[in-house]
Amino acid sequence: MQYPELATVQARLTYRLTSFLLENLAAGYTVEWMDAFHAQRHAAEALGIADRELPWLGTRVDPRGYKSFGKRLSRKIVCGDCGRPFGHKTWHSGTPNRVDVWECPTNYVKRGTCTTSHLYQEVLLVKMAEALQVLAGRNSTAVDQAVDSLQSTGARRRPSTLHTAIDKLLTESPTQLALHIPDFLAMLEGGCMLTDGRLGFVFITGEAVTLDLPQRWSPVMRPGELAATGRC
């Protein structure tokens, strides 16, 4: 069976960022969900994304109910001190709370060995969404593609209105954003590095995003406490 050639990594990244923008525009009621869906298909055609790449991108899940998240991200979070991959664990307490964390195995054996011993999954999910914010802000092609696809498929919004909504989306708290793990992992090249209170992601185009982590981690954090204190 002959398969069409896969799109370039830059086109694939642009498409996934376009999808991220379209979905959040719909989640924020700027456009209708059906308009976002049609625009997403238009963007795939415009960027040369093969149909066999779309089912992976089209998977829509709630991160809190995504049971294979630990397997998908297994060995992708690397400790910057010892070089070993973090493991996924569930911490229990005397209360009904169950907290998902990623923990450095070296530090687990001997506490204090590595500077960043563990990472709450709640924080990780927010930082993943924030990384997409940063990437989308750098990628003007994805922004223009989202607006063009909405216009081309008949969405009843002016380009200026859409650009204003996207600008707002790129600066609001990442805790308010829609994030879908299969989309994110399709963009991730290899994994991410966690060291000295900072989390660094490297994506399929070679672009990197480094984010500061909250200084004090807690299983229950206010949205403002999860916001980044630094980006690069």
Write a concise keyword list for the protein shown above.
232 residues; 10 helices; 7 strands; 44% helix; Recombinase zinc beta ribbon domain-containing protein; Zn_ribbon_recom_dom
Strand content: 15-25%
User: What's the structural domain tally?
Assistant: 1
Number of helices: 10
What overall form do the CA principal axes indicate?
A: elongated
Q: Helix amount, in percent?
A: 40-55%
Written as H for each helix and E for each strand, in order along the chain, the element string is HHHHEEEHEHHHHEEEH
List how many beta strands DSSP finds: 7
Task: Outline the low-pLDDT stretches.
Answer: 55-66, 219-229
Main sheet strand line-up = 1-5-6-7
Which class do the helix and strand fractions yield? alpha+beta
Biggest sheet, in brief? 4 strands, mixed
Give the N-terminus to C-terminus distance in angstroms: 44 Å
Mean pLDDT: 81
Protein name: Recombinase zinc beta ribbon domain-containing protein
Domain Recombinase zinc beta ribbon: 73-124
InterPro entries: Zn_ribbon_recom_dom
Pfam families: Zn_ribbon_recom
Detail the topology: elements first, then pairings.
Elements: H1 9-27, H2 33-47, H3 54-58, H4 69-72, E1 77-79, E2 87-92, E3 98-103, H5 105-109, E4 118-120, H6 121-138, H7 140-152, H8 159-169, H9 181-187, E5 188-195, E6 198-203, E7 208-212, H10 223-226
Organism: Cutibacterium acnes
Protein name: Recombinase zinc beta ribbon domain-containing protein
InterPro entries: Zn_ribbon_recom_dom
